[in-house]
């Protein structure tokens, strides 16, 4: 019985002779034994008209036998019972089912597993690693926003004093690094690792130290709870999983996605309420009221509504603190409830407050 054998490692056509027994197909070339394939391992492959192309199931991919003689083909078909048991001939329905199942399991992971994973992983990540992650996000942020950090010396001193008082009040261990970013967007954000940015437009709108102190307290609350890190794990993992779905598994893409996510969208409602509580408790322990922060946010909200009606340029449409921190009546009420029993000293002197307000002015 004649056939052509390809060994899968070279392109050479080898004219071979086949003998078949109940258990194996033996291949010889010029009287020399070449291979024996167990009959149950022999499978048919797609082939040109008239050719029976055989391969060995667990053998190398490109190894094959081409049989042209119809009589030989008939004998082989008779002996090799599993010739058509193909994995790659699985019914289409089954493949569709499995890819749909994969998509569903990825979506379920995004909805349920990632938040859970982020919740579990966050406490396990060393503070030092969190700082490094924060630094990476910080760099990305500067690329995205391109805004400079305001550094007027007296204002910086006042900001440090205010930050110290707030963090000491609640014994925050994270090394906080607060800065004002010269931006026209009224916003404030906390990065993983303790970097907090107050955007200049928010500071401009503030009418008292307590208003800014409340916002700072809220952001310190996010840092203390490691909300930024949790969010990064969650959205980074989410973008990775979506990458699997849509075929783009690039680490860089995930980082960009994560940092955008950090800026554009809100923490969970629970995280927001906890940060508010933290801010309130901080203010109260310093003998200061908690609600001025809400007044500041209300003022900005009113301004932005006005801007929308006047149809000003796009600049103010950029996601602001309010979009990530909507001022709800419930939030306002919760803050109003936190009143100190005894008023404490102002957190900054009038002079320090003025210096802070002018931190972005260059002398
Ligand atoms: Zn927040």
3D structure, described in words:
With 363 residues, the chain is an alpha+beta fold. Helices cover 52% and strands 15% of the residues. It has helices at residues 70-79, 92-121, 127-145, 153-169, 200-205, 209-224, 227-246, 251-264, 269-285, 292-310, 321-324, 329-336, 350-357, and strands spanning 2-6, 14-20, 24-29, 32-38, 42-45, 52-56, 64-67, 149-150, 177-181, 188-190, 195-199. A hairpin with a 3-residue loop joins strand 2 (14-20) and strand 3. Helix 6 packs across helix 9. The N and C termini lie far apart (97 Å). Mean pLDDT is 81; it is low at 248-256 and 308-320. The structure holds zinc ion. The site of zinc ion has 6 residues, from helix 6 and helix 9.
Produce the secondary structure layout.
Blueprint: E1 2-6, E2 14-20, E3 24-29, E4 32-38, E5 42-45, E6 52-56, E7 64-67, H1 70-79, H2 92-121, H3 127-145, E8 149-150, H4 153-169, E9 177-181, E10 188-190, E11 195-199, H5 200-205, H6 209-224, H7 227-246, H8 251-264, H9 269-285, H10 292-310, H11 321-324, H12 329-336, H13 350-357
Bound molecules: zinc ion (ZN).
Zinc ion (ZN) binds next to helix 6 and helix 9.
How many discrete structural domains?
2
Bound molecules: zinc ion
By DSSP, the count of extended strands is: 11
Strand fraction equals: 5-15%
Q: What does the overall shape look like?
A: rod-shaped
Query: Considering DSSP H and I runs of 4 or more, what fraction of the residues is helical?
Result: 40-55%
Q: Structural class of the secondary structure composition?
A: alpha+beta
The pLDDT mean sits at 81
Helix run count:
13
Q: What is the first-to-last residue Cα distance?
A: 97 Å
Q: For the CA atoms, what is the radius of gyration?
A: 34 Å
Biggest sheet statistics = 7 strands, antiparallel
Q: SSE order in H/E notation?
A: EEEEEEEHHHEHEEEHHHHHHHHH
Task: Describe the strand arrangement of the main beta sheet, using strand numbers.
Answer: 4-3-2-1-7-6-5
């Amino acid at each position: 019985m004649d056939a052509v054998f390809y060994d899968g490692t070279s392109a050479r056509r080898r004219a071979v002779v086949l003998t078949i027994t109940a258990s194996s197909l033996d291949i010889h070339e010029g009287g020399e034994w070449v291979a024996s394939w167990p009959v149950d391992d022999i499978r048919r492959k797609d082939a040109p008209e008239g050719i029976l192309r055989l391969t060995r199931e667990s053998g190398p991919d490109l190894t094959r036998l081409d049989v042209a003689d119809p009589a030989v083909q008939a004998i082989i078909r008779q002996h090799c019972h599993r010739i058509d048991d193909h994995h790659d001939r699985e019914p289409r329905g089954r493949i569709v089912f499995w890819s749909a199942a994969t998509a569903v399991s990825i979506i379920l992971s995004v909805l349920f597993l990632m938040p859970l994973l982020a919740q579990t992983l966050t406490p396990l990540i060393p503070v030092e690693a969190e700082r490094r992650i924060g630094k990476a996000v910080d760099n990305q942020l500067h690329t995205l926003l391109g805004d400079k950090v305001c550094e007027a010396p007296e204002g910086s001193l006042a900001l440090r004093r205010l930050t110290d008082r707030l963090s000491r009040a609640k014994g925050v261990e994270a090394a906080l690094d607060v800065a004002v970013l010269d931006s026209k967007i009224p916003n404030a954000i906390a990065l993983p690792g303790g970097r907090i940015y107050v955007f200049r437009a928010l500071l401009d709108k503030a009418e008292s130290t307590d208003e800014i102190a409340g916002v700072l307290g809220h952001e310190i609350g996010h840092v203390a709870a490691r909300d930024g890190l949790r969010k990064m794990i969650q959205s980074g993992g989410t973008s990775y999983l979506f990458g699997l779905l849509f075929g783009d598994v690039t680490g860089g893409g995930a980082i960009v996605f994560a940092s955008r996510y950090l800026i554009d969208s809100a923490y969970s409602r629970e995280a927001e309420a906890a940060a508010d509580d933290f801010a309130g408790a901080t203010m109260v322990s310093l003998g200061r009221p908690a609600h001025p922060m809400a007044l500041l946010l209300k003022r900005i909200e009113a301004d932005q509504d006005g801007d929308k009606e006047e149809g000003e340029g796009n600049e103010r449409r950029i996601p602001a603190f309010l979009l990530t921190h909507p001022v709800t009546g419930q939030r306002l009420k919760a803050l109003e409830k936190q009143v100190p029993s005894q008023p404490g000293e102002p957190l900054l002197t009038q002079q320090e407050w003025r210096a802070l307000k002018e931190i972005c002015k260059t002398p």
